[in-house]
Amino acid sequence: MGAQRIDGKLIATKKRQAMKSQIESMKQQGYVPGLAVILVGEDPASISYVKGKIRDCKEVGIYSELIQFDVTVSEKQVLEQIEILNANDKIHGLLVQLPLPDHISEQKVIQAISPEKDVDGFHPINVGRLVTKQEGFVSCTPAGIIEMLKAIDVPISGKHVVIVGRSNIVGKPAALLFLNLDATVTVCHSKTKPLSKYTKQADILVAAAGSEALIHANDIKPGAIVIDVGMNRSASGRLVGDVAFEEVKEKAGYITPVPGGVGPMTRVMLLENTLIAAMRQHEKAGKQ
Known about the structure:
Mean pLDDT: 96
Helix content: 40-55%
CATH superfamily of the largest domain: NAD(P)-binding Rossmann-like Domain
CATH architecture of the largest domain: 3-Layer(aba) Sandwich
Shape: globular
Distance between the termini: 59 Å
Low-confidence stretches: none
CATH class of the largest domain: Alpha Beta
Largest sheet: 6 strands, parallel
Strand order of the largest sheet: 1-11-8-7-5-6
């Protein structure tokens, strides 16, 4: 019969529709959620991502600002711009599009963003809050994965989740999110040998290694839920994931396609984080 596809595009569309009415309610209370994006340089992929984020904001009614710098901008100038946006009451969410040029420290930039406006969930304070199950912001891709599983009513508690990849953006925060939801979590990476020994145990497999066709049908157990976070270009230029989709879909219970799976969820969770940031900051201002 084959796996059921998890349609991230459809789930994200429904979430955006719900956001529109939520933002209308905010406007009636006298405030509009605001997102600022800082872009350095002319990297085509970064420009495409940022344009998509600005379009998403416009669609749901979020106020957005794009601050674009030439690749030669100094680290000091970027940090000064972050301070200006941290103090701007119209801006509730702030992100700096990565990667940055070599002369600008990503860590310094991330740490300069106010944790209350860190809608990417990269600030060490927000990472610490995730570790200790406190209120904060979670990286958008892992948050989107959890939303997808909730949308198809997949129970997480007690499941064995195997994550392939240990990046700060996906693998590590995803492991913590699943752990906080009472899953048993195994994290694999490039030094895990043999990889299939662990992936075959997964009730839920998250492939986030950035390696084309890393996971094949003989690497999963029958009926597993397979979440493909990979975004790779094949030799023909096609966008493909970390999972050999056509092969694995015949054995899995559920599977996400690439594109149209995790990607749309990542984008919509950025909007959701911005809404949450706006509500928290509005509530805090009301108490002062």
